[in-house]
Specification:
This protein has a single domain, classed as Beta Barrel (Barwin-like endoglucanases), CATH 2.40.40. The radius of gyration is 18 Å and the shape is globular. The chain is built from 5 helices and 6 strands. It has a 6-stranded mixed beta barrel. With 157 residues, it is of the alpha/beta class. It starts with a helix and ends in a 24-residue tail after the last strand. 27% of the residues lie in helices and 24% in strands.
Length: 157
């Protein structure tokens, strides 16, 4: 009986730490851009900050603000915005071919210009697995500020 109680106590100590760390999620990645073009002040996010390339909108029920999202090509984004299209996952429900894709979270990646956004969207798949590193995680200290120059040669997964 003591062994069972000790096992349960150990599990209760380890499980929260496991879920508090990094996680990998299937995501439908969409793009959006500043309404006034490059270097425009016309696009502020839900938190009131001015968006810049490298920010993205997420569903805060699954990914908290301040988290870093690591894409398969090695690029890293900051979770800084949210919105109804991200929360209701309409893009995933419409374009998903399998149950897993239809249940994927939606990440809306911000770009300064429409040209950059559409160019990125045409070169990348609709669905991809992203690594989520929560804010205040020790892993954040080891992440590079900018993606590697030859990101295609350095697959993160």
């Amino acid at each position: 009986m003591r062994r069972l109680i000790a096992t349960i106590a150990l599990a209760l100590l380890v499980v929260p730490a496991t879920f508090a760390g990094e996680q990998s999620l299937l995501a439908r990645v969409t793009v959006y851009w500043a309404s006034g073009g490059a270097n425009s002040n016309h696009h502020t996010c839900a938190t009131g900050l001015r968006l810049q390339t490298g920010d993205c909108a997420v569903d805060t029920r699954h990914i908290p603000y301040g988290s870093r999202l690591i894409f398969p090509d090695g690029s890293t984004l900051a979770a800084a915005d949210t919105g109804p299209a991200v929360r209701d996952r309409k893009a995933a429900r419409i374009s998903g071919r399998t149950v897993y894709e239809r249940n994927a979270i939606v990440i809306d990646r911000f770009f300064d210009t429409k040209r950059e956004a559409l160019s990125w969207a045409s070169r990348n798949p609709l669905f991809m697995t992203v690594r989520v590193v929560p804010p205040n995680s020790r892993t954040l200290e080891r992440l590079p500020e900018h993606p590697p120059l030859d990101s295609l040669a350095q697959r993160g997964f």
